[in-house]
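Need a sequence for this fold. Nothing fancy.
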């Protein structure tokens, strides 16, 4: 895995680009069959989902089979890496590559501390209220609301969220107050239009209980090498065309017209940065056996609660 820091012009670290090779299919794999989705970890179904025919919601069923891709984190690590999302990103990148049940596969990924969730609290709700609303409820069965919450980047836990009485949550609440809480690791799945929690269920619960914004690391696919190369070439051509336009204006109107380097250069920087950070759709593999196989698995893991057509 090749890793590259993504840094703004002012030197602010915003993410870690991951170029993954020789991993054709991930251990935590998303399969699709028409409007049905199945997330498996190894051979075990973790999440079954059925998109409504009117595309207003997604029914889901969790199986309690998910196992975190991150080993238990010690409090000392939180103190040592407090305020350093870049160092956490490198550590989590190692865990993601080493874990046999992780979501990484061939291509480019971004592990960023700048999740859209951090910009979504438009009405300035208290952190406990906002983050509590972002968590999709229901276990083992529930639904993701695409009608009211379309584009809000909700969070779907892959196992039940612990409550404030849980021992882990109590320990993490102290870290949340101290500012030493390790990031919650999220994976954006475009087919669900929401995140899933890869690690940090108890840490997120602790942040909500303390009404504080949780530190996040947000994982998503980005453009592959061919797309980056082609986009970079187009950006270069636009840059050169803009410089030529300014040169023509300067020839007509004199040196009062700027040479355009600052304007065109800033645009070039934004275009290239976007190629390395923009979100791309999550890959899903065709489910062997198609919808019939999805129905068989759904009937088995839900003890017949879900019909073969995906309706509860």
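Here you go.
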């Amino acid at each position: 895995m090749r890793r590259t820091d993504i840094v703004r012009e002012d030197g602010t670290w915003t993410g870690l680009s991951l170029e993954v090779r020789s991993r054709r299919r991930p251990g935590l794999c998303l399969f699709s069959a028409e409007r049905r989705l199945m997330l498996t970890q190894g051979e075990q179904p973790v999440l079954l989902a059925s998109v409504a025919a009117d595309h207003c919601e997604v029914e889901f069923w969790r199986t309690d089979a998910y196992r975190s891709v991150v080993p238990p984190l010690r409090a000392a690590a939180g103190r040592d890496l407090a305020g350093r999302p870049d160092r956490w990103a490198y550590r989590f990148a190692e865990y993601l590559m080493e874990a046999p049940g992780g979501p990484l596969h061939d291509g480019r990924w971004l592990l960023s501390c700048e999740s859209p969730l951090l910009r979504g609290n438009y009405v300035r709700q208290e952190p406990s209220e906002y983050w509590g609303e972002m968590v999709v409820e229901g276990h083992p069965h529930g639904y993701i609301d695409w009608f009211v919450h379309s584009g809000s980047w909700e969070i779907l836990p892959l196992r039940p969220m612990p409550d404030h009485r849980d021992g882990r949550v109590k320990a993490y609440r102290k870290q949340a107050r101290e500012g030493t809480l390790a990031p919650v690791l999220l994976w954006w799945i475009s087919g669900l239009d929401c995140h899933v929690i890869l690690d940090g269920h108890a840490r997120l619960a602790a942040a909500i209980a303390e009404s504080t914004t949780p530190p996040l690391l947000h994982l998503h696919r980005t453009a592959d090498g061919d797309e980056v190369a082609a986009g970079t070439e187009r950006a270069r051509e636009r840059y050169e065309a803009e410089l030529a336009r300014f040169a023509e204006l300067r020839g007509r109107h004199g040196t009062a017209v700027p040479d355009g380097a600052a304007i065109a250069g800033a645009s070039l920087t934004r275009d290239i940065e976007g190629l390395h950070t923009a979100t791309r759709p999550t890959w899903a593999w065709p489910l062997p056996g198609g919808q019939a196989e999805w129905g068989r698995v759904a009937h088995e893991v839900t003890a017949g609660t879900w019909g073969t057509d995906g309706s509860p």
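For context: The chain has a mean pLDDT of 90.
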